Amino acid sequence: MTTATSFAPRAVISYAKFCAAASSYRKEAFNDEGIRALSIAIMRSASSGNILLSFDLSKRLEFLLSGDNVEQSSLQWAIYSSKIESTTKILNSTGTEREISPLHPDFRLELERRRAESELELGIFFKHGKSNVPNSATRVVEILNKELTNGNRTAAYNLGLLLEEGLNEIPADPTRALELYTQAMDAGYGAALNEVARLHDIGKGVERNPKYAVQIYTRAIDEEGSVLAMRNLALMLKDGAEGVPANPKRAVELLLRAIEEGGCADSMRNLAGLLQDGAEGVPKDAPKALRLLERAVKESGDPLSRCNLAYILTSGEEGVPVNLKRAIALYKRAIDQDDSTDAMFHLADLYLGGTGASDDAIRATQLLQRAIDKDGRADALICLGGVLTRGAIGVPKDPVRAVELYTRAIEEHGSGHAMYRLGRLLERGAKLVPKDTERAISLYNRAASETNHEKSAQRLRNMEEQKKHLEQVRHRWVK
To answer: Is the distance from CB of 347 to CB of 371 less than 8 angstroms?
Structure first.
C-alpha cells in the first residue's frame, strides 16, 4: 500500500454511484451495479493509500455482505478489497479466471479465501500505530489458526511471521514460529525455506546451526531462486560461522546474482560494504562500492544505502573524492525520508568535526537527542555524553546529564565504551559530580572483563603503574 493520499477519479465516480443508490444503510437499496461500484471504490482507495475513505466504504460493504451490525474492525474490508481485482475475477479450481457478480456467493468465498493473508496485513497495519482497533492481533491469530486446520500452508507461513516478533497483545514465540515455517516448508511453500534457514542461522527459536542453515539457504536458492536466501547466505559466508568456513569470494558471487536477478538494494549495499573493506580474495574497490550505493539509492531510495553513500563520501577512500556538501544533503534526505537514526548520528558526527557553521555543535546535540528519543541508540548516548562533558560553542558543560547518558548506555546496552567514559569522568570529577576513583576502577574492570574494552584495560595498567611510581617516591622520601 502506498502512502499517497489521493485516489483515482474512477473511484470517486464509483463512490458517487454508490451513495446515490444507497445513501442510508438500507440493504434493499443495493443492487448489483452499486455493489460492484462499491467494491471497486474500496479497492482503488485502499490501494492508493486513502484509508479513511476505504474505511467508510468498507463499513457499508461489510453490512451488505453480512447483514450484521457494523463492527469496529470493519477496516479489514479496506485491506481485503485491495486484493480483489476491479474486474471482480477469481480463480476457479482449474487455475483459470472467471468473472462473477459481487452478489454471487463465490464473491464472499473469495474474500474469505484471502482472509488470512489480509488479516495479517491488517495486523501489521495496527502494529504500526495506524489504528486503535482493539484485539486486532487476537483476531488475526484466530483466523490464521482456522486456516491452519484446513491445511493452508500460506496461513502457516503468515502465522509464523506474526509469532516470530509478536504483535500487539500476542507475545513473540519464535519456537512456534519455526515450527510453522517448517510446516509450510514441508508443504512446499517456497518462501518458508529462507525463514527456516534464517532462524537456524541466527539461533532464534532453536539452537544455532549454521551448517543446516547453509543447506536450507541453498535449497531456497536452487528451488526458488530466492534473492533473500542469496543475500543471507552471502552474509554468512563473508565472515564464516561455526562449521562454515569464511568464503568472501563466494559471498560476492551470491550478492552479484541477487542484484542481477532481483535488483535487491540490500544486496547492493552489502556488496558495497564488502568491497569497501576488502577481504581474502576480494580486493578493496571503493569506486565500485560507490557506484553500487549510487544505484541502490537511485533505484530504491534505500535510506541505509543513502547513509552509507554519505559515509563513503566523507571517508577519503582511495579513488573517491571527499564531498562534504553532498554527504550532508544525503544524510538530511535519509532523516527526512525514513527518520533514520544512523543518518542522525553520522550527520551529528560531521557537525562535531566542524563544517564551518557557528551552530554546528548545537545542531549536533539536537540530532543526537533526536536519535536517543527515537531508539536510545548507544553511540548517540555516548557521543552526547562526551559533548556535555567537555562543552562546545553554544553547548554548555553538563556533567550531571553526561553521567545519566553514560549510565543509560551501560544499563540498556552493556556498553564497554560507556563504562570507560563514565570511569574517566569519575576519575577527574566535575561540577556536581564528585571524584570517585574506586567506582572508576570498578567500571574499567567491568568493561575489560565483560566487553574486552582495550582502553579500559590499558587505563587499569596505567593506574597500576602510577600507583607503583607513587609508592617508590614515597619510599624514597621516608628514607
So the answer is: no
Burial class (CB in 10 A: 0-12, 13-18, 19+), 169: exposed
- CA proximity to 251, closest of 225, 274, 222, 268: 274
Give tens-digit pLDDT for 137-155.
676 677 778 778 777 787 7
Distance (Å, rounded) from C-alpha 268 to C-alpha 305?
8
Burial class from Cβ neighbours inside 10 Å (0-12, 13-18, 19+) for residue 256 reads middle
- The residue with cell 564497554 is 416
For residue 175, the one-letter residue type is T
Residue keyed to cell 548506555: 409
φ/ψ region of 319 (left if φ > 0, alpha if ψ in -120 to 50, else beta) reads left
Asked whether the beta carbons of 11 and 44 are under 8 A apart, the reply is yes
Q: Which of 232, 218, 312, 315 is nearest to 272 (CA)?
A: 312
Q: Name the amino acid, one letter, at 359.
A: D
Instruction: Tell me whether residue 67 is exposed, middle or buried, using C-beta atoms within 10 angstroms of its C-beta: 0 to 12, 13 to 18, 19 or more.
Output: exposed
Distance set, CA 37 to CA 13, 65, 83, 124, 319 (Å) = 8, 14, 15, 28, 59
Cβ-based neighbours of 46, under 8 Å, separated by 6 or more: 1, 54, 58, 78, 79, 81, 82
pLDDT digits (tens, 9 = 90+) for 341-376: 999 999 999 999 876 666 899 999 999 999 999 999
DSSP lists the bridge partners of residue 282 as 279
pTM attached to this predicted model: 0.67
Q: Which three cell numbers stand for residue 212?
A: 543446516
CB 327 within 8 A of CB 317: no
Question: Is pLDDT of 15 > 70?
Answer: no
DSSP letters, 384-439, are HHHHHHH-BTTB---HHHHHHHHHHHHHHH--HHHHHHHHHHHHH-BTTB---HHH
Mapping DSSP to helix (H, G, I), strand (E, B) and coil, where does residue 377 land? coil
Helices (H), 187-226: 191-202, 210-224
Q: For residues 242 and 209, is the Cβ–Cβ distance under 8 A?
A: no
